[in-house]
């Protein structure tokens, strides 16, 4: 387990990257995304933050909070139903006005539904939210991430030296849950089930992030499992399910991660994990981490998929979906 002290120490080095860092928090209006954005605001010098979600009232409260926490920060809310890829493109047009994006965090998610719930774009909404939209953001913002990775001048004793810039994309879902996919129906048009939706989103995330990490070696890509964190994730569930999960949260208290700690750990995933390849299996380029910030993955399945070239297959499928939906 990486200790919280070590994590806070690493996060405090954010200042050394200088003023004007840009953080994009897709799902930043609640829970883990909000907590990570808060840590970013606390540790960075004059940062610019983009919060993306649907809840305008909640975003206004957070913006006021962030201003009080760091008066030199600027926070912008971009309202967006993220499960639609065309909306993602629209919101990215705003963010692309920035020359660089240093931290891109995805926590936009909900409890998956039992039945396939198709969006106007023909994708299952949960799969779109947890996988396709996140990859679309990355594909659109790769130039900004790459620019952020360019070397910067050292300070103080390190003056005259350079160090790599900060450029990190992190998807919060569930590394370790990778499994067998239905190869001829990756978007689960005819094979949808709760368990398939979970396995496909998780496994495709890992394969695509590793593929992207290989072709963009200066940017750090991470798939993270937050553990059990008490957030707003159950807000759309029925009353009975909400009560059952609250009861489980009480029982799970000894193992739970507070939302504030989760925020620090996800900022650490951006600041502390470099672009030089993730820990775990040989050839793994993306980082896969658990709630303790240590490596976490179903390595057997991943090694086999890696050997079979499934990363290219999944990324090719993802680009086909982008072409079909966005033209
Ligand atoms: N909490 C846990 O114990 C846990 C465990 C394992 C994995 N995870 C994963 O961690 C991620 C973050 O979860 P969390 O616990 O922080 O949940 P949360 O508090 O519910 O936050 C989810 C965020 O996603 C946004 N969002 C949801 N649906 C959206 C949509 N259709 N369009 C735009 N934004 C949308 C919400 O914003 P608006 O309300 O403004 O739309 C909110 O900011 C999720 O992917 C979840 O699956 C969480």
Give a structural overview.
It holds the Pfam family adh_short. Keywords: Oxidoreductase. One of its GO terms (molecular function) is oxidoreductase activity. There is one protein chain. The protein is an alpha/beta fold and 327 residues long. It has one domain: NAD(P)-binding Rossmann-like Domain (Rossmann fold, 3-Layer(aba) Sandwich). The protein is built from 10 helices and 9 strands. The strands form 2 sheets. The chain has a 7-stranded parallel β-sheet with strand order 3-2-1-4-7-8-9, sandwiched between helices. The protein has a two-stranded antiparallel sheet with strand order 5-6. α6 links the parallel β7 and β8. The radius of gyration is 19 Å and the shape is globular. The mean pLDDT is 93. The structure holds NADP nicotinamide-adenine-dinucleotide phosphate. NADP nicotinamide-adenine-dinucleotide phosphate binds next to α2 and α5.
